[in-house]
Design goal:
By secondary structure, the chain is mainly α. It has one helix at 2-152.
Length: 153
C-alpha cells in the first residue's frame, strides 16, 4: 500500500504540476491572445494610415500634375507676352521715329509758313505802295486832265 500511496502522491504531484503547467499555458495563451489583439489593432491602424497616406499621395500627385500644367501654361503665356512686348517695343520705336519725322516736317512747314507770311506781308506792303502810287498817279492824271480841259476851254 505504501507503494499505492506513493503512486497516489506522485499522481497528485503530477496532477498539481500539470494543473500548474496548464494554468501557466492558459496564462501564456491569454497573454499571447492579448498581444495578438494588440498586434492586429496596430496592423489595422497601420492599414488605415497606409490608406490615408495613399489618398494623400494621390491627391499630391494630382496637385503636382495640375501645378505642372499651370507651369507649362504660364511658360507659354510668358513667351506669348514676351513676343507681344517685343512687337509693342518695335511698334513704339517705329511710331517714335515717325513722330520725330513728322515733328521735323511740321517745323519745316512752320518755318515755310513764317517765310510765306513775311513774303505776303512784303507783297501786301508793295501792293499798298503801288496802290498809293496809282492813286497819286490817277490824281495827277485827273489834275492834268482838268488843267488841260480848262486851258482848252
Amino acid at each position: 500500500m505504501e507503494e499505492n500511496q506513493v503512486l497516489l502522491q506522485q499522481d497528485h504531484a503530477d496532477k498539481a504540476t500539470m494543473e500548474k503547467n496548464g494554468k501557466m499555458v492558459n496564462n501564456q495563451i491569454h497573454d499571447m491572445q492579448g498581444r495578438l489583439e494588440d498586434i492586429q489593432r496596430a496592423l489595422h491602424e497601420a492599414y488605415g494610415s497606409k490608406r490615408k497616406l495613399m489618398v494623400e499621395y494621390c491627391d499630391l500627385q494630382l496637385h503636382q500634375e495640375e501645378a505642372e500644367r499651370q507651369s507649362v501654361q504660364l511658360s507659354k503665356d510668358k513667351t506669348s507676352l514676351s513676343t507681344q512686348l517685343e512687337d509693342s517695343k518695335r511698334l513704339a520705336d517705329v511710331e517714335t521715329r515717325e513722330r520725330i519725322n513728322l515733328l521735323g516736317k511740321m517745323r519745316n512747314l512752320e518755318h515755310e509758313l513764317e517765310v510765306m507770311k513775311e513774303h505776303l506781308d512784303e507783297e501786301y506792303d508793295s501792293k499798298q505802295e503801288i496802290e498809293r502810287q496809282l492813286s497819286k498817279s490817277m490824281a495827277d492824271v485827273n489834275l492834268w486832265k482838268t488843267r488841260y480841259f480848262l486851258k482848252m476851254f
